[in-house]
Amino acid sequence: MNLKSLIHARLDGEITPEQLAQLEELLREDWQARRLYLELADLHARLLQQPQIAAGRLPKKVVSVSSQTWKSFLPALAAAAVIALAFTLWPHDSPLPEATSNGVAMLSQTMDAEFEQNSMRSGDTLMPGRIKLTKGLAQIEFFSGATALVEGAAEIEVISAWEARCVSGRVRVHVPPAAKGFLMHAPGMKLEDLGTEFALNVKNDSSAVHVFEGEVIAHTNLAPTSLTQGMTLGNTTDDFLRINELQGLVKERQAHRFADWQAWSARTEKDPRLIAYYTFKHRPEDQWDRMVNNLAQPPQEQRHGGAVGARWTQGRWPEKEALEFKRPGDRVRMNLDGTYAAITLACWVKVDSVDKKYNSLLLTDGYDNGEPHWQIYEDGSLMFSIMYRPASAPKGGKPNQIYHSNPVFTADSLGRWHHLAVTYNNQSGQVIQYFDGQEVSREVSALHQPGRDISLGPCEIGNWGLPTAGHQFPIRNLNGAIDEFAIYSAVLSAEEVKAMFETGKVE
């Protein structure tokens, strides 16, 4: 299409994305093209002032408009043309809605916990509702500042940031001064905390409370009763829950989990399908702290990575290291040789914010044929793509195969460790994406052609080292941390991905 046809298509709302890209490029490069656009936009605005013309009907009698009257419309028409041009040149993506959360508390820690709601895990934001803990320990932190330690079997109803109900089980509550007035309901009583620490046992619809520190006002069918340190109301045959029980058990459990993962990782290093395996672990013989060792066996030192800018921080466990990516320069540089028929990418990542249109997990330099890109899209979805540009394809086209999952990173899942994985087979063309061991998308691109090689070459974890020339979104550094990254020359099964998650999860 020529320039005039493109402008008319834009003004009439019939332009395609490819045509719009062509028009925008012409307008940027040629001032005469911009002047023609303004003239046609002006004419288009005038026609819209005539309802009969806009509706496709001509009036029987055309009334002339005086020159002075017409001149009064010129400023408005010029403004309309400028606004139309601004809309043409400005990015057209609609702004994403602001992330919100309706939570009133969070599940801050657990120890061997099993819930009736199977999907619950540490870090979850809690909405008002009932929680049934069948076994183990769970710590709930209310947004008011109050903390409740619950032992299963127990049932707790979260009412608001300032109120909860113990239906059954053992609970210990700590209320700092800022949460004074927190209410805990139980069968036969309501406890108003005045800044204290107390324990509550509920069994067979019978309640007993003991105050360890401060003061609690107990409202029963009698007059309100003030309970102070050392006082008990009600009868129970069970001990009251000790507050230090969870912290000690959690540390012990973390040490066991880390040891289990280390044993699994040592076995994984010997997997012959590995292209590279980075656990972000310093070796005693490392001479500098910028080295990111490739632990895949047999050793291939040419595939070691180098950290640039990214800072060392704590990983999933206190004893584990990770790299934190915050600034536009933060990255891990690698050079992964070879061509492959299949690939699996898997990592443990803590995303602090999805603050760019594209947020890098692993990107190759540039974007040549056979090179995969793995990113988090601005809506929180996982995005995998691979480039196969025919020799005849124009540079402005979209020959790459792009695959999106549904959004998985939300306001409630940020700041926590998650396991991500994606598999691609160059014969079937099928891409499967996983989030925390669960499949979240499965797709074959309409552009897929079987048998085309996959290659990585110079590439980066957490950034884009060599953006394609003139790209609109060259800055793609991750905002978060990574403490394990594995790259395989095969498609891992769903069972293998699930095992990676189960072995590596913190709890």
From TrEMBL:
<protein>
    <submittedName>
        <fullName>FecR family protein</fullName>
    </submittedName>
</protein>
<dbReference type="InterPro" id="IPR012373">
    <property type="entry name" value="Ferrdict_sens_TM"/>
</dbReference>
<keyword id="KW-1015">Disulfide bond</keyword>
<dbReference type="Pfam" id="PF13385">
    <property type="entry name" value="Laminin_G_3"/>
</dbReference>
<keyword id="KW-0732">Signal</keyword>
<feature type="domain" description="LamG-like jellyroll fold">
    <location>
        <begin position="341"/>
        <end position="495"/>
    </location>
</feature>
<dbReference type="InterPro" id="IPR013320">
    <property type="entry name" value="ConA-like_dom_sf"/>
</dbReference>
<dbReference type="InterPro" id="IPR006558">
    <property type="entry name" value="LamG-like"/>
</dbReference>
<dbReference type="GO" id="GO:0016989">
    <property type="term" value="F:sigma factor antagonist activity"/>
</dbReference>
